Amino acid sequence: MSFEGKVVIVTGAAQGIGRGVAEAFAEAGAYVVLSDSNEEQGAATAASIRQEGRNAMFIPCDVRLETEIQQLMKQAADEFGAIDILINNAGVSRWKSPYELSLSEWDDILNTNVRSVFLASREAAGYMKQRGGGAIVNMASTRAIMSEPNTEAYAASKGAIVALTHALAISLGQDGIRVNCVSPGWIETGNYDALRPADHEQHPVGRVGYPGDIARACMYLTHPDNTFVTGTQLIVDGGMTRKMIYEE
Ligand code: NAI
Predict the structure, then answer these.
(1) 186 lines ligand 1 (CB under 6 A)
(2) By CB distance 3.0 to 4.6 Å, which of 18, 144, 180, 238 could disulfide with 89?
(3) Is the pTM for the entire model greater than 0.85?
């Protein structure tokens, strides 16, 4: 899939899934703007993509802060004259008992994971509209629809992303902007080789996911040919949320 000449912004791109998404778009010919609150790691990741002969730059941004999001979009649009694609990937996962989760911890997780998606989409959409359209992908999670204990704030943030995705798709469709989300299952961003056989075998497809699985989903959802796809949630989880589990 070619993204030759497209301007793609990826938040939370210093490491993990965001890094994999940025690398994949860069390899497909895009101008990739990597953004992250971790400036050192983000700049190093962008430099390593450039070393492969691809187009990548780093702009720091803490997605909890409206002014930094506005600055990110402005700087990217000034540099490239356009924003074609936004991947709202930055997020934090923190588990804590609902008996102990404080108001400030709740607010911080919601502000990082979901308020940021609204603010970044609002700011990027302004630039996309000027050029006749664009595409946005929000990183949700299968935890939007299933839970382990002590994940209230994270689950709520991801469920909100799924709802925000279809709301934005309807509001922005008239401006040629498509909005979709990806719900990853278990995506190993650390040492894949250290996973146990049981980690892989519990998945219907027989393996744990890796960032490339999510990068390809983002490319499908944002490709200029796929203009009939908007407002949807693409679950990429090796079948885990379709597996019925009863203990024998
Ligand atoms: P990660 O922790 O490896 O990377 C997240 C990146 O976001 C880091 O580079 C971090 O510095 C950045 N970040 C954190 N707070 C930020 C802020 N306030 N402003 C800007 N950047 C910030 O996480 P991972 O696993 O790569 O996850 C990426 C996204 O995918 C997240 O939204 C996560 O919720 C979602 N996800 C991940 C899954 C997995 O199994 N790895 C499963 C389902 C969803």
Answers:
(1) yes
(2) 18
(3) yes
